[in-house]
Amino acid sequence: IAIVCALREGFALVFDPAFRKPFPKACAWFERCCNMPQFKSVIGDVKLCTAAQKPKPVIAAFAPPARGAAKDAAAKDAAPKAKAKATPDAKAQPKSQPK
Q1: Which residues have CB under 8 Å from 70's CB, separation 6+?
Q2: What's the rounded Cα separation, in Å, for the pair 44 and 40?
Q3: What pLDDT, on a 0 to 100 scale, did the predictor assign at position 57?
Q4: What is the largest CA-CA distance in the chain?
Q5: What is the mean pLDDT of each run of 10 residues along the chain (99 residues)?
Q6: How large is the angle between the packed helices 24-34 and 2-13, nearest 10 degrees?
Q7: What Å distances lie between residue 41 and 2, 31, 44, CA to CA?
Q8: How far, CA to CA in Å, does 87 sit from each of 74, 94, 95, 99?
Q9: What is the pLDDT of residue 52?
Q10: Alpha carbons 11 and 49: distance in angstroms, whole number
Q11: pLDDT at res. 56
Q12: Which among 52, 73, 91, 99 is least surrounded, fewest beta carbons within 10 Å?
């Protein structure tokens, strides 16, 4: 059961006929398991992949910044922190001792 569930996404999205060709017995076993009513009631109909999906490009919002840009951004962030440490806060002053 666990192996069929693990292979289901691969057979549905990635394993095209050329990839499955060297593994006829494994593919037949997978199809036989998927056609059992017990499996169909849980995982539904599994359609085998006809063409492997291409990898999606990385979205620019999630791409890491360039190396030089990362150092510049770190320097910009450090400057406000240094100014914040230089200004004294009222909360930072020690409290007077109780009498």
Answers
A1: 64
A2: 4
A3: 78
A4: 88
A5: 90 90 95 92 88 78 64 58 54 62
A6: 110
A7: 15, 15, 6
A8: 21, 15, 18, 30
A9: 83
A10: 6
A11: 80
A12: 99
Cβ neighbours of residue 14 under 8 Å, at least 6 residues apart?
A: 49, 52, 53
19: tokens are 């990839």
Calculate the CA dihedral of residues 67, 68, 69, 75 and round it to 10 degrees.
110
Quote the CA–CA distance of 65 and 34 in Å, as a whole number: 45
Of 15, 19, 12, 20, the closest CA to residue 48 belongs to 12
